[in-house]
Amino acid sequence: MSETGRHADVPEETLPSERETAHVSVEKAENPFADPGLPPHEHRIQDIDERAAKRSERVVALQFLVSMLATVAFIASYVAVPVDKIVYIWPIGHISALNFALGLSLGVALFCIGAGAVHWARTLMSDVEVADERHPIEAEPEVKAKVMEDFAQGAKESGFGRRKLVRNTLFGALAMVPLSGVVLLRDLGPLPGTKLRTTGWKRGVRLVNQSTNLPLRPEDIAVGSLTFAKPEGLEDDAEDFNVQIAKDALMIVRIKPEDIKDKQELSWSYDGIVAYSKICTHVGCPISLYEQQTHHVLCPCHQSTFDLSDGGRVIFGPAGHALPQLHIMVKDGFLEAASGFEEPVGPSFWERG
């Protein structure tokens, strides 16, 4: 049907003009979707019934209290449950009782704080939707003032100051949860005391070949060779062997006396045989690479290099100080320690002099 046919029966004065038609078309192009606005606000039962609000408050407080009890259970489990205890939990299977108790109690503690906060927000805080226009990134002073006003209003509507039961139990739950992390510090063990400063070496302790478990004689050490030693009495199957050898391990090398540069090193040696700690002074790796022409030893972890002909000083790498030397002597044909180390072995620590 033609345009004339469609509007033949419509009075001309009632038809939209071309200008009006063009205006409507432009408006639709600029705003293709109409603003539906906000739906009417529906009040919650807690908004109109104070008894319902009190019930919600008690539910929130109960969740925070459960969180506090779970934190106490975490600490009690950490102290009371044996580390090696295994239990069967369906459908997981056999697991560590300690890990299960710690995970369950800490999970409950954190979940209850989150659940309590969500329930508080959904039932007790104001839920009125507010529309605001977009604004530039840099806020105007009036906008900043409005934000602070809105924040104060939100704090007031949240009931944080008025609902003391919720507020106090929340503070209690948040204050107790960090105790879980504090208790875990027990795994750091007791303070070391003098353990970092003492080793198994003392006067009269023989040097034992770590490979053969036989006491070392001077003639067993050839010029240019590298021998690893441990103190006599330290057995490989001892319960604390790994702890002790980490401090007691020695490197024994034989250098021509005329090649030794450090006077103390020469006086602490026997016929060119010198004994140094095998533990790198950077992070405690065992040193095992020896270059007999230069008398340098290299730590394979981070390439710290030490000169065994010059007091074990550092000549390259991140190590902070020289390798400690053990004063040795010969008695009844065997190499022995003339004293213990005069300084701590291994990596530096802040109390070290």
Please provide a written account of the structure.
This protein is of the alpha+beta class and 353 residues long. It has two domains: 45-188, no CATH class; 207-337, Rieske Iron-sulfur Protein (3-layer Sandwich). It contains ten helices and 13 strands. It has helices at 3-6, 18-30, 45-48, 50-80, 97-123, 141-158, 164-176, 178-184, 241-248, 263-267, and strands at 86-89, 93-96, 207-209, 226-231, 250-254, 273-277, 289-291, 296-298, 305-307, 313-316, 325-326, 328-331, 334-337. The strands form four sheets. It has a five-stranded antiparallel β-sheet. Strands 7-8-9-10 form a four-stranded antiparallel β-sheet, with no helix packed on it. Strand 12 (328-331) and strand 13 form a beta hairpin. It is elongated and about 100 Å long. Residues 1-25 are annotated as: Disordered. The chain crosses the membrane at residues 59-80, 100-121, 165-185. Its main location: membrane. One of its GO terms (molecular function) is 2 iron, 2 sulfur cluster binding. InterPro entries: QcrA_N, Rieske_2Fe-2S, Rieske_2Fe-2S_sf, Rieske_Fe-S_prot, Rieske_Fe-S_prot_C.
Summed up, what is this model?
With 353 residues, the chain is an alpha+beta fold. The chain has two domains: 45-188, no CATH class; 207-337, Rieske [2Fe-2S] iron-sulphur domain (Rieske Iron-sulfur Protein), CATH 2.102.10.
What is the element layout, followed by pairings?
Blueprint: H1 3-6, H2 18-30, H3 45-48, H4 50-80, E1 86-89, E2 93-96, H5 97-123, H6 141-158, H7 164-176, H8 178-184, E3 207-209, E4 226-231, H9 241-248, E5 250-254, H10 263-267, E6 273-277, E7 289-291, E8 296-298, E9 305-307, E10 313-316, E11 325-326, E12 328-331, E13 334-337
Antiparallel strand pairs: 1-2, 3-4, 4-5, 5-6, 6-11, 7-8, 8-9, 9-10, 12-13
Helix pairs in contact: 4-5, 4-7, 4-8, 5-7
